[in-house]
Design brief:
Length: about 375
């Protein structure tokens, strides 16, 4: 059975002002009473059991993660001393898992994704697991058939057909990975949607843990060397001191850029289980709205001649609109965001400006 690694250490700056440094988007209840972290953990626990689940997070989020996921053993929460992007975070979780189970097979998943069809999601992961066990030297990715041209996502370009796997209704196709493409412009994204070759990249990885760790030695040798020192110190009196020292010296990079974009011979399985990267307020509207023209409101609102809006009143103030269409309005106690839905990816730039201007009270 797979050992899921749920990545829950990100900042979620594109969902400001609700997502803040102390309470990022994965710790927010955006859709109902459960946070995205709780939803993601429940999804993976349904397929593989809560006792197998690992969560990778940072020290500043540890208490909140433990409160939200009391069913996860404390030993299965991999705590990073500081934020270092996804490759170091995954590497630290990997060495901890390998220390306990050298033969483990893992699935890497992000806590800030939305999945509509959980049954199909779990079925595809088990197909990926079967392939990874049959070919343990290969990394297996899951790609999402694009529903529309999205300029905020990375894409996987498929290569040759490697295999077809029969199932009760139809079959699953498995392809080689030809290339990765990061955040194309609108015209290019439209071309990708029309082509069978391109998939959204959710960074959903299934692999033998030791194989994935070997890729660090190949593509990130300096990081691998420090992770080996941490692995050798686990279970000793030196564990915390070595983790703090070695992790601090690791250069930050993402798993996509650091390993996946450099690795050859990977496989990808095209899938469609209602996946959404909750990376912008527009994505939140798309998940919650009955149609693109529908307004979604969280909190009191009053509208005249308005539609297609996302209105979030976290502090309970009335949001009133007149002649407003396709906009995002998010209100908290100390900030108000107003932007077109089409430009909601740019909220991250606002946060970058606040960082430069040292407006810490709003971060």
């Amino acid at each position: 059975m797979l050992t899921p690694i749920l990545m829950a250490g990100g900042a979620g700056t594109r969902l400001w002002p609700l997502s803040r440094a102390g309470a990022p988007k994965q710790l927010q209840a955006l859709f109902d009473q459960e946070t995205m972290l709780q939803k993601s953990a429940a999804r993976l626990s349904r397929g593989f059991g809560a006792k197998r689940l690992w969560v990778a997070t940072t020290r500043e989020y540890l208490d909140r993660v433990r409160r939200e996921l009391p069913q996860i053993p404390r030993a299965h929460i991999s705590v990073e001393p500081m934020k270092k992007e996804t490759a170091p975070a995954l590497g630290l979780a990997l060495v901890r898992i390998l220390h306990k189970d050298p033969e483990a097979f893992i699935v890497y998943a992000n806590a800030d994704n939305f999945v509509r069809d959980v049954g199909e999601f779990l079925r595809i992961l088990k197909v990926a697991e079967s392939l990874a066990r049959a070919e343990p030297d290969r990394l297996v990715l899951v790609g999402i058939r694009p529903a529309y041209p999205d300029t905020g996502l990375g894409y996987i370009r498929m290569g040759d057909l490697l295999a077809r796997v029969r199932r009760r209704r139809g079959e699953d196709e498995i392809f080689s990975v030809r290339a990765f493409v990061e955040k194309p412009n609108q015209k290019t994204a439209e071309r990708y949607v029309q082509s069978w070759e391109y998939l959204w990249n959710p960074t959903l990885i299934v692999a033998k843990a030791s194989t994935l760790f070997q890729k660090y030695a190949r593509h990130l040798p300096a990081m691998h060397e420090r992770l080996v020192k941490i692995k050798n110190a686990l279970g000793t009196v030196r564990e915390n001191a070595v983790i703090n020292r070695e992790f601090a010296a690791i250069a930050p990079t993402t798993i996509d850029y650091g390993i996946l974009e450099k690795e050859k011979g990977m496989a990808v399985i095209p899938a469609d289980f209602g996946w959404t990267d909750v990376g912008s307020w527009r994505a939140v509207h798309e998940i919650l709205a009955a149609s693109p023209q529908a307004t979604v409101a969280r909190g009191p609102h009053l509208a005249i001649d308005s539609g297609g809006n996302l209105l979030v009143s976290a502090a309970g103030k009335l949001i009133a609109t007149v002649g407003v269409h396709d906009m995002v309005v998010v209100e908290t106690e100390d900030a108000v965001l107003v932007c077109p839905k089409s430009r909601s990816q740019e909220v991250k730039k606002l946060v970058e400006v606040m960082v430069k201007r040292k407006l810490k009270k709003y971060l």
